[in-house]
Design goal:
The protein is of the alpha/beta class. It is about 30% helix and about 20% strand. A hairpin with a 2-residue loop joins strand 11 and strand 12. The protein is globular and about 65 Å long. The chain starts with a helix and ends in a 9-residue tail after the last strand.
């Protein structure tokens, strides 16, 4: 028996008390993701009449500022959106996963997401979903519906379900995530336009069908374009792209009809930074990370972005004596940086014992709080304990020990070169915490205020809007008050959840041809896997 058939049978039995078929007072939901969108970009253009379809959704619905994960990065944010749980539970915090008993890492994949995304749960309940472009969905699951994987999909592999769809899309010239891209490359606006035209045709065909409960379509083009160094985020290229995305949004909304609830969201925002903080150099100068004698150069960061980031990490660790370093700079994005302690029994060359960890965290937190500009202005806004921010069974293995939020003027990075603090003359665009959430539909009560919402709120809200019972494990708030006539929230209890086996993904047998094995290797210093 195919797994998705077993899923439907098992899940329906388990959900019988809560209503397996759902839809009690619910609607179909179209989710459109604009990766990297922020109200700082949208609001001025809405006011000027340049985004009429976004404006129409706002006028008949409501908005919220959608807080990203800390740190704000697509690899952690999209699994949080789709599963309704945080990185300590779903297990993905960056674009790389640590290898067991090693300092090495490998590129993350959909198989690393330990919690079931909403389309898998719906498929198990006999509800069809069409999913396109969501990051961290390769290899594609065999769901009831369509799944075209997004960011990090190997272009020559079978990145879509049903099987054969990837070959069909390749024959039309489609490339997932706009192709392999580099942070230092010049934006290919013609490529973006061509891919948007192709993607729009395919999405309109899917959305125009009557066979689905959920469509979730993510556009990565804004994030790709915004990542160019020295780019003016209010410049003509960004405005042209947003107008194009707005036009596509309008046609998608028209195709699904007035009885469908529409959700427009982003996983994080974007802003320009002129001040930079090098967390790696700060740890070195403070004696937390200890450089090896004679080591002054790292690995080149040339090549595609995923490979470049892996090379940067390997090069940075290669400069350190991991046998005496107590702490290591981890992933950084926007005004957030992370620190991982070098713990005995957890890291191969651990230095700190478990008993020493609390005092080390206290000391690091205090030292970070003391960082100031010459005028006495603090640089760090808040320091989080990873275990407190993202609890769960995978917290210790996947989530950094400290997550540092700097003041919004400061971009955080990790490099073996440069001083801890620097001020540049050219703006550097990077991620920001605040994304967007716009909701409109036949049951949605309009409101002018703009509250804050969490990424973990999205999945329970989608279940509720569709009239589906919410899985017991979900962490967020479904916000039933956004409806004109709020319905009771239906939640499953733990004993109504399907068995563990039925929550596992069926990823089929995707071709390895064209796959990308991106790893960070530091075997030369004796601590590789």
């Amino acid at each position: 028996m195919r797994l998705r058939s077993a899923l439907s049978t098992i899940a329906c039995c388990a959900f019988a008390l809560a209503g397996c078929s759902g839809s009690a007072g619910g609607t179909r939901v179209l989710v459109v993701g604009w990766d990297g969108a922020t109200f700082d970009l949208l609001d001025p253009m809405v006011a000027e009449g340049e985004l009429p379809h976004v404006a129409a959704l706002m006028a008949r619905g409501r908005t919220a500022t959608l807080e990203s994960t800390r740190i704000p990065i697509s690899s952690a944010a999209w699994p949080t959106i789709s599963t309704g749980v945080g990185p300590g539970v779903h297990g993905v915090y960056s674009f790389f996963q640590p290898e067991d008993e090693s300092y090495d890492v490998r590129l993350v994949s959909a198989a690393d997401v330990a919690a079931p995304p909403i389309w898998r749960v719906l498929s198990g309940r006999g509800q069809r979903a069409h999913v396109w472009g969501v990051p961290i969905t390769y290899p594609p699951e065999q769901i009831d519906g369509t799944l075209v994987a997004g960011m990090l999909s190997p272009f020559g592999a079978q990145y879509a379900h049903p099987r054969g769809l990837a070959d069909e899309l390749r024959s039309k010239g489609f490339v997932p995530d706009l192709g392999v891209w580099r942070q230092d490359q010049v934006a290919d606006l013609d490529l973006i336009r061509r891919q948007l035209d192709l993607k729009e045709r395919e999405l309109l065909e899917l959305a125009g069908r009557q066979d689905w409960r959920l469509c979730m379509f993510v556009f990565k083009s804004l994030d790709v374009l915004c990542h160019r160094p020295n780019l003016d985020l209010q410049g003509p290229e960004i405005r042209e792209l947003l107008r194009r995305l707005d036009a596509i949004l309008g046609r998608l909304v028209q195709s699904v009809g007035p009885d469908t609830t529409v959700v427009l969201l982003s996983d994080h925002g974007f802003k320009s930074y002129r001040r930079a903080f090098n967390l790696h150099r700060w740890l070195v100068e403070g004696g937390w990370s200890v450089q090896r004698e004679g080591e002054s150069t790292g690995t080149s960061a040339a090549g595609p972005l995923a490979q470049a980031k892996a090379s940067q990490r390997a090069g940075r660790l290669a400069t350190l004596d991991l046998g005496v370093s107590r702490a290591i700079a981890d992933v950084a994005e926007g005004n957030f940086g992370a620190i991982r302690l070098n713990v005995v029994g957890r890291e191969p060359a651990g230095v700190l014992t478990r008993e020493e960890v609390p005092s080390a965290l206290d000391e690091l937190t205090a030292r970070l709080g003391e960082i100031e500009l010459p005028a006495g202005v603090p640089v760090v806004r808040r320091v989080y304990r990873g275990a407190d921010l993202y609890p769960g069974p995978l917290q210790d293995a996947r989530v950094p020990d400290l997550i540092v939020e700097f003041n919004p003027a400061w971009r955080v990075y990790t490099d073996i070169f440069g001083p801890p603090m620097s001020v540049g003359t050219q703006p550097f665009p990077d991620h920001a915490l605040d994304g967007i959430l716009v909701i409109a539909g036949p049951s949605i009560d309009g409101a002018s205020e703009r509250p804050r919402a969490q990424l973990t709120d999205v999945a329970p809200m989608l279940y509720h809007l569709m009239g589906e019972p919410i899985p017991a494990r979900l962490e967020g708030d479904p916000n039933p008050s956004i409806e004109r006539r709020p319905r009771p929230v239906r939640r499953l209890t733990a004993d109504q959840e399907p068995g563990k086996g039925s929550l596992q993904g069926d990823f089929g047998d995707p071709d390895s041809a064209g796959g990308q094995e991106v790893t960070s290797r530091i075997e030369s210093i004796g601590y590789g896997g």
